[in-house]
Specification:
Number of helices: 10
Radius of gyration: 26 Å
Number of domains: 2
Order of helices and strands: EHEHEHHEHEHEHHHH
Distance between the termini: 85 Å
Number of strands: 6
Structural class: alpha/beta
Length: 226
């Protein structure tokens, strides 16, 4: 009898509060979860509770209980809004679980903080990050800050930048030629140097079928339009 072992890609994704919250950070998390699922990963979503990065003692206890109950065979991705203020929990779990910190932006660098709050958050986040087996930064700039100011080794970090979905070009409409001429004039009005340098290339990019190259090659006609 031959036994076949089925390997399932599983991961836990922990977010603070409602994943449907309409902010850039939550949109990033939703997309990452969606893409992992599309790639065949089984993603278990964990709500750590609201109030981060200033959770109450009750919310901290809830987060600890929910994370502690997770299978230690699956990595746990924790959004930085929560991870940065849970250093004690990270220290308890670092030996038993693979913790992955997802840092959108260091908490101490957020606007509106007092000096004391910034100092506290910097120390808390740096302490928590030392417990992460890996750190995901959403930009190269964020990774650089984490390396230089939070002493996170570069080899333990990856940059996963947000992007945009590809969209089809708008179909050509009969009135486009008029709009193109207006934009062409606007380009020339942008300055004697910038407009003259940019206008021909813009014409060719916009609607080459409208005779833009011929206009660019005819200095007399160009002068009349100006």
């Amino acid at each position: 009898m031959v036994r076949v072992q089925l390997v399932v890609n599983g991961i836990v994704f922990a977010v603070p509060g409602d994943l449907a919250t309409p902010t850039g950070g939550y949109a990033y998390d939703r997309r990452m979860i969606g893409e992992l699922t599309a790639l065949g990963w089984t993603v278990e979503l964990i709500d750590l509770g609201s109030g981060f990065p200033q959770p109450t003692a009750e919310i901290r206890a809830t987060a600890a209980n929910r994370l502690g109950a997770m299978d230690n065979r699956c990595p746990i991705v924790i959004d930085g809004l929560a991870f940065g203020v849970l250093p004690e929990l990270a220290e308890r779990m670092r030996e038993s679980h693979r913790l992955v910190a997802l840092v959108h932006h260091p908490l101490a660098l957020e606007t509106g903080l007092s000096a004391d709050e910034a100092v506290f958050l910097r120390a808390s986040e740096q302490r928590a990050l030392t417990c992460a087996s890996h750190v995901i930064a959403t930009s190269a700039a964020t990774m650089s800050i984490l390396a230089q100011d939070f002493q996170v080794p570069v080899e333990r970090m990856s940059v996963v930048e947000p992007g945009t979905d590809m969209a089809a070009f708008a179909p050509h409409q009969p009135g486009d030629a008029i709009a193109t001429q207006g934009l062409r004039r606007a380009c020339r009005c942008s300055g004697p140097d910038k407009g003259a340098a940019m206008a021909p290339s813009h014409r060719r990019r916009l609607h080459p079928k409208h005779g833009d190259d011929r206009r660019a090659a005819n200095p007399n006609r160009t002068t009349r339009v100006r």
